[in-house]
Structure formats: structure tokens, C-alpha cells
Amino acid sequence: MFTKTELLNLKKSFSTAFPDYYNQLEACKTEQQLKETYEKIRADAFEKARPYLAEGDDPTGFPAMALTPQQYTNLITASGSNIKVYVTSMLNQAQVIQPDFSVGQTVATLIGGGMTAIGTVAGAAFGAGVLAGAVEAIAVAAGVAAVTVAGLVTLIAVAIVAIIIPIIYFMLKPACCFALVLNETSNDLKWKDDYNVHGKPIGYTPTISAAINIPEPIPGAGLYVYAGIVQTDKRDNALVGTQYGFTYSNALNKYDVNFGVECPLTSLYVDNNCFCEINSTSENAADQTDSKNVLSYSASSENPKLNVSINCNSGSGYVAYYVARVQDGSLN
């Protein structure tokens, strides 16, 4: 659960980043007004995001987020309550491009929105510059940031609106799962499918970019790993929580990674739990997370060489937080 201080901090950050949305919600007098206003705000955020999406992209898809080396270290070493701390910190990145961002961090964050999420032409320019290791190209890309930052911030706003508003204004609604999926490989991970035993999917990141290495002597040089967001909630007025499986695929190496998460309304039979496997199905992962009923799980394979894992912050609480990892050894 969130403490009162944590909720106040979330609300303050949200009000600073989106004062218009905040004022609309604060003016509501009933829960019904809140729900109706939230749906209008969500539709408005999605509509504003459309111009920055490539043809065929899902405007409801959450953008990938670039992890600084420190954020990456925090997430892969987190356990227990620290998982909630670091996951909510990532989810609350309302001010995506900070004034004090280094050139490397700015470029990494722009690419982290997804190559197509900032437009195919801009995405290709950023990608070519970074992957080729051309210092001049990256500097030019960072200089053009003012043109594309607005688009990326708009895309991040969609995620913030979809994720943060329900936490702040609908705290009586239990059974919600947030998962950060870290792509620790040299290839993109693409969304394949999902399966709900109970509950409903809220959103996901369609493509989690492969890690990139910003070369020296660019300020902020280093390895940037990307994280995708997956969210599932209980259904409105349902008497059970959410039990959910989802799958990401690597088309180049032809493998699937499957994850399962569950946040029940009550711990009478099972607690918050998680599961993962390789080359199975979303449905099986959803079924297994309930039957295993554990807070941490891992799986590995030799062909392809792969390690996957997932950790949950706590067996109790009506919001469950997860850090899922996909590793192929290429970043070592």
C-alpha cells in the first residue's frame, strides 16, 4: 500500500506536470464525476499522442523508459519494499526530459520512447547516430531534442495518466499489478499476447528497445537498458482480483518469454505472486503463477541461451509491484 506521504508526493508531482488535468479532477464532487472526468482525460491524452506515433502504432501503448546506470543497478538489486520504491519512481517520471539531463541521457531517453514512438524518421536518425557510435551524429540528435521532446513527453503523459491517476483518485479500487520488464539483451523485445484468468489488462509497452551504449566522450556516456511497463487491474465490481499472463518475443532469435502475475482481493487462498518461463504461453504463465504462489521465480535455457526472472515486492497489499528481467548474457 501507499503511505499518506507517498500519495501526497505523487499528487504534488502530478499537479506540477499536468495542472489542467489535476484541476479537472480536483473539481469533482462525486466518485461518478471522477470516473467520467478520468475517462475524458485519458481519451484526451491518447488523442494528443497520435501525431507522434507511426502508422499502426497503438496510442494506448506505454512507452519504454531509459534507465540510467544507477536506476538499472537499483532495479536489478531491489527486493522487498525497495521494489515498490524503485518501480513507482520509474512510473512517476512525469517530467521526462529534465533540465539537468546530460546529452547521453537525453538521447537515450528519446530512443527509449521507442523508435516509432517519436516518428520513424526521427527514430532512424537517433538510432543510426547512436548505434554507429558517431559523436557528431549524437550531438546533432541531442540538439534536435527540442523538436521531439514534446512528442515524447506527450507519450509519457499517456502512461502517467493511465497509471498515476487511478492510484491517486481511486485508492479504494484494490488488486492492481505493475510490472517493469527489463530488456537486458542486444535485441528488441516485442509484445506478443496476454491472457487474463481474472481481471483486465490496462496497458503495456509494445516494444522494449535493446540496450544501447552511449560512447565517450559524450556527457552521460554509458550503458542504457530499457524497461517496459505492463499493468493489469481487477474488473470493476468483481469479487476476485487479477490473475494475468503476458508474453514478449524476440523475432531474431525466435524465442518467447512468458510472465505471470497475480494480486488477489484476499490472501485467503493465495498471496500476491509471480511466475516466468521460456517458450510457453501467456495462459500457462497465468495459471502457473496462481498454483506456484511465490514472490520470486526464475527460469533458464541453453538454446537459446537465456535467463528470465521476476520478483514481487510483497505477498500482501492491494497493489503489487514486479521487476521482470530478460537476459541473454550479451551485456556482460
What can you see in these coordinates?
With 332 residues, the protein is α+β, with helices and mostly antiparallel strands. Helix content is 39%, strand content 28%. It has ten helices and 13 strands. Strands 1, 2, 4, 6, 7, 11, 12 and 13 form an eight-stranded mixed β-sheet that branches. Strands 5-3-8-9-10 form a five-stranded antiparallel β-sheet, with helices on one face. The longest helix has 25 residues, at 145-169. It starts with a helix and ends in a 5-residue tail after the last strand.
Features:
globular; five-stranded antiparallel sheet; 332 residues; 13 strands; single chain
Please give the structural blueprint.
Layout: H1 4-17, H2 19-26, H3 31-49, E1 65-67, H4 69-77, H5 81-91, H6 103-112, H7 120-131, H8 135-143, H9 145-169, E2 176-184, E3 189-198, E4 200-204, E5 207-208, E6 212-214, E7 222-233, E8 242-250, E9 255-263, E10 273-278, H10 282-292, E11 296-302, E12 305-312, E13 319-327
Helix pairs in contact: 1-2, 1-9, 3-9, 6-8, 7-8
> Which regions are unreliable across 5 or more consecutive residues at pLDDT < 50?
114-147
Largest β sheet strand count, sense and barrel closure: 8 strands, mixed
The helix content is 25-40%
| Helix and strand element order | HHHEHHHHHHEEEEEEEEEHEEE
**Shape, principal axes of CA atoms:** globular
Q: What is the distance, rounded to the nearest whole angstrom, between the alpha carbons of the first and last residues?
A: 35 Å
Mean pLDDT: 78
The strand count comes to 13
Strand content: 25-35%
Number of helices: 10
SS-based class: alpha+beta
**Radius of gyration, taken over Cα atoms and rounded to an integer in Å:** 19 Å
